[in-house]
Amino acid sequence: MxxxxxxxxxxxxxxxxxxxxxxxxxxxxxxxxxxxxxSNLLIVTVLTLDSQLQTPxxxxxxxxxxxxxxxxxxxxxxxxxxxxxxxxxxxIPGCAFQLLFITSFTGSDIFILTAMSYDRYVAxxxxxxxxxxxxxxxxxxxxxxxxxxxxxxxxxxTAGTFSGPFCGSNVIPExxxxxxxxxxxxxxxxxxxxxxxxxxxxxxxxxxxxxxxxSYVHILSAVLRIPSRKSQSKAFSTCLPxxxxxxxxxxxxxxxxxxxxxxxxxxxxxxxxxxxxxxPPILNPAIYTLRNSDMKRGLRRLLPALPVHCV
Length: 311
Hints:
CATH superfamily: Rhodopsin 7-helix transmembrane proteins
Order of helices and strands: EHHHEHHHEHHHHHH
Strand order of the largest sheet: 2-1-3
Low-confidence stretches: 305-311
Number of domains: 1
CATH class: Mainly Alpha
Strand content: under 5%
Mean pLDDT: 80
Structural class: mainly alpha
Helix content: over 70%
C-alpha cells in the first residue's frame, strides 16, 4: 500500500548527524559566510564610491557581487542555525521561500555573467563602438532584465513545485531545498506543472552558454591577432576570470540540479551544493580583484591606511 502520509515540514539532511560535528559544520559555514559577505560588500562599496570605476564592466561586477551576497544569504544562515540548535527541520513556507530566492538569484546570476561576456566582446572586438553600444541606459536595461527574468523563473519554478501536496519521506538530502528532491516526494504530478518553466529555463540557460561560448571564440580570435604580448596579456586578464567563474558556477549547478536525488547520499555527493552556493561568492572577489589593477587601486583609494602589499 502506498504511503500517503502528508508532509507538514521537511528535514534537511545536512552534513553530519553527530551534534559535535554539526556544531563544527556551523562554525565552518559561518566563517565562509562572513568571508563571502564582507568581501562582496567591500567590492560593492568600492565600485559605488570610486568615480574612476564607473564603467560597464564594473557595473556588472557590482551586480554580480550583490547577487552573490543574496544567493549565499538564502541557505547558509538557516543551515548554521539548524546545526547550532541540532534541528534540521524547515517549514513548507520556509522551503518555498528558499526555492524561490535560490532559483531567482541563480537565473539572474547566469544572465549577468552573459551580459559581462557581451561587454568584454564589445570592448575587445568592437572597441571603436564600445561607448556607443555599452551606454549607461543599455547596461541598466541588461541588468534590470537579468534581475527581472531571474525573479520570474524563480516564481514559476516555485509555484509549479508547490502546486500540490507532498507525501511519504520528508527528508531532503541537501542542506537547502532544491527542485529534484522536492519533485521526488511530491504526491501529485508536479513534473507536469514545472515542465514548461523547466523547458524554458533550460533553453535560456543553454542560450546563455552558447552566447558566452561564441563571445569568447571571437574574443580569442581577436586577442591572438594583437601584435603586442602585453596587450594580449591584459585582454586575457580581464576575460579569463569571468570564464573561470562562469564554468565553476554552471558545472556545480548542473551537478546539483541534474543529479538524481538519493534518499541518503554520502557526504561527498552533497559537496556540489556547497560549491554551487558558497564557493563562487568566496572566489569571485578574489578572482576579480587579485588580477585587476584597477580594483587594487580602488581599494587603496578607499582604504588609504591599508599597506600596499595587502591589496
